[in-house]
Each structure stands twice: as C-alpha cells, then as structure tokens.
Specification:
about 290 residues; alpha/beta; Rossmann fold; 11 helices; about 35% helix; globular
Length: about 290
C-alpha cells in the first residue's frame, strides 16, 4: 500500500508547500465563498485541480490520504487495467483520472457528479482525457432527485436531500443550495455487453440503495465489481449501505475487504457492519463480487 510513513516523509520534505496548502485552505474557507482552485500533481505525475479547502491531502501528497482511500487506490493499481470504470459520486475526479491513467486505450471511464460547483472542478480534471465521459447527474432508480450541495468546505458531504446528514456532521450554519438534478440508472448507463469487465465505484453519502436498485439487470447478468464506501458514522449512510448490500447479496454477490497490498479478503460472516466494528472503522471501501 502507499505507506503512511512515506506520506509523512513527503510532508516533512516540502515544508513550504505544506504551509502554503494550509494557508490557501484557510483563505478558501474564510474569504472565498466558492473556495480556491489550486493545481497540483498526483502521485503518478498527472496535473490535478482541487478546490481548497476540499482536497488538501491531494494538494499536499498527490493522493487521497485516508487509509480506506489508500487501500482503494492500491486495489485499483493492482486490478484495473482495462474495461469500463463507472465513478458514481466522482467529486473532483481523483478516481476518475486514476482509472483513465490505468486503462489508457484499453478501457473507458464514465463519471457522475451531481453537485454543480464540484462538477466544474471535475471538468478541469477530465476533459483533456479522450477516454473519460462526465455527467452533471446523479445515479439512481428514478429520473431526478432533490439534491443538497454544501459550501466547498463540506463538499464531500453533498447528498440527495432525503439523505442529508447535516445534523450529524455539525454542518448547521454551513451554506447550502437545494435543487433538482437529473438522474440516470445503472441499467441505462452500462452497455449490456457480457464480454466486458465493469468496475463501479460508489460514494454517494446515503444514496447507495437507489444506485443499486437502478442496476438490477446489469448487476444480475454482467461481470461487475462493485466498490462501495460503507458507513457506520451516520445513519443515512449506514441504512443506504445496508439496503444496497441486501440487494447485492440476493443477486449472489460476496462482500470483501481490501487488504493493505490491494488484494481482497472475504468478510467471514458476510456482515460489513460487523467487519467495520471489529476493525474499529467508521467507514471503509468494500468490494462486492459474484462467486
């Protein structure tokens, strides 16, 4: 895995950039309503844009630094070489761009980001790659949803309004916009081509059930790897993940955790909640595959 010690060492070797990153984040949080766009390099040396204060870890380190995100990155490095990658809840497009880099001419990437301001940053990171298509839409089992977009400082908590987590994340007083956004379903998005490998990454803060319900046909018939950010730290996310997992389990999927080396380990009792509690995690990226 992209080691924690290596990330700490990188910070220590670039003190000026670290100070600058925190300074720009302060400015983005306090002086600019829409944040502060900054350019950086990813760990694989590709230009990447973020909107500070969101994405500070990418600005400083070239990678999403949370342990669960580093494991997911390592998993993709080990297992994604071709096929179709669908990024649902792409945010600024870190995994969108990584998938494009890994697949190159052997695959394509489709990314969905419903938040209007966040989507503008995603465009900066995606539009110069020929194998990426991006959409300012949600993914669900309905044609549109009511969406809540927070100020950039809390943009990673953007969610369908029904799954809003504001009361559980101390976002009272944080500016937000509510609006209706178009939604497409997985069955509409993914070509019904049985010869194609498909990897789906889902990070939707409580909207997991709607995503999975909209893909019953393709999830039942195609060779699909589902990566889902699984929550215990807020009720909306936990319920959405639980209901999504119930559907996947009924379709014959098996739940796996990602080890530090990017390989998979079957979750013994097939209870993601028990796994997270046993490993003292509030959130992790779990993988779901058929036998």
């Amino acid at each position: 895995m992209l080691a924690e010690a290596g990330l700490v060492s990188k910070l220590m070797k670039q003190p000026f950039r670290t100070i600058k990153g925190f300074f720009f984040s302060f400015i983005g949080s306090n002086l600019y309503k829409n944040g502060l766009i900054a350019r950086t390099k990813t760990f694989y040396d590709e230009t990447f844009y973020i909107n500070l204060p969101a994405g500070l870890d990418i600005y400083l380190l070239g990678i999403k630094s949370h342990r669960a995100e580093r494991r997911l990155t390592t998993f993709m490095l080990e297992h994604l070489k071709s096929g179709l990658f669908v990024d649902i809840g792409a945010h600024f497009g870190f995994y969108t761009q990584l998938a494009s880099h890994l697949c190159r001419d052997n695959g394509r990437v489709i990314a969905f980001e419903p938040a209007k301001k966040t989507y503008e940053v995603l465009k900066l990171n995606a539009n110069r790659f020929h194998n990426i298509s991006i959409y300012n839409e949600a993914v669900a089992n309905v044609s549109s949803i009511q969406f809540r977009e927070y100020a950039v400082s809390h943009s990673e908590y953007n969610a369908a309004k029904a799954q809003s987590i504001s009361t559980e994340y101390s976002t009272d007083g944080i500016a937000f916009d509510d609006y209706e956004i178009k939604a497409s379903s997985l069955d509409q998005i993914i070509p019904h081509n049985k010869g194609q490998d498909v990897m789906i990454k889902i990070d939707v803060e409580g909207g997991e059930e709607a995503v999975i319900r909209g893909g019953h046909e393709v999830l039942n018939t195609l060779n699909i790897t589902v990566i889902m950010e699984y929550h215990l730290h807020h009720e909306a996310g936990t319920i959405g993940c639980q209901k999504a997992w119930d559907i996947l389990q009924n379709l014959g999927y098996i739940a796996y955790s990602i080890k530090d080396d990017g390989q998979l380990a079957i979750i013994d009792d097939q209870s993601p909640e028990n796994y997270l509690r046993a490993t003292n995690q509030l959130v992790d990226n779990l993988v779901f595959r058929k036998n």
